[in-house]
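lol ok so funny story. i was supposed to be doing the assay writeup but got distracted and ended up predicting the structure for this chain instead. priorities right. anyway since i did it might as well share w the group, maybe its usefull for someone
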Amino acid sequence: MPGMMEMDAHLPGEVQLSGNGTLSEGHFVNEQTTGRLLFGGAITCMVPSRFRDVSDIREVPDNQEVLCDYDREESIIIELLEFKSDVSDEDSARWFLQNVAEEQESENFMTIEDRRVLTESDVPHMPASTVMNAACGYMTITKTRQFDGLPNVANMVTVSPTSTTHLVKAHLANIRLRNVETDVVITINQKLDQRSQSPSSTALEPATPEEASHISTADLLSLVLRTLKIEDWTLFVS
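and the output, tada:
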């Protein structure tokens, strides 16, 4: 269950870490951020203050931390998974993103951008030589459930017998910690509406004033990665 650190800050324009669209879309805003204590404080990072701890309203697996902005239908999921030795380093983020789509029973999945390698400047607080990469894609999910911004269909609530299609944009980063046999997977999910970008169109309609006041999902992933720190490595000792 994530707690809050004592510091609040405003996100500066320098949040853009890369010209690659997987991590940044060049959406510069000032947004209040909060330090989060994850996995009992063993991991910390900064996120926008508008995100809430999902474990306050439902059970979350011990290997996950889930934060959600229900108004914007965006979520941040940080997962600690057993290291996938059969997955290649250069394609691991794409593999994990495809796996998310399969878990969603997504009827359509398309990776539109893929930044294969993250550098120390992208994720500055990881051990030297850590393999890190990211990918971005869209999922079309058809379920008789209402999407609540979370990655697994089990996290959706049934609202009617009528099937509804949701277009979800996902940014995913994979940090491969071989020394502790762990794949750290960070996923930013956003349910898109009619005004948002879709796989069939690269143009975005002008943002509303409210939308313009929030960081983009690509920049959100950059913020989490840049501030992510492992404070207690005994977290990974079984």
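Residues 92-103 form the longest helix (12 residues). The radius of gyration is 17 Å.
back to the writeup now i swear
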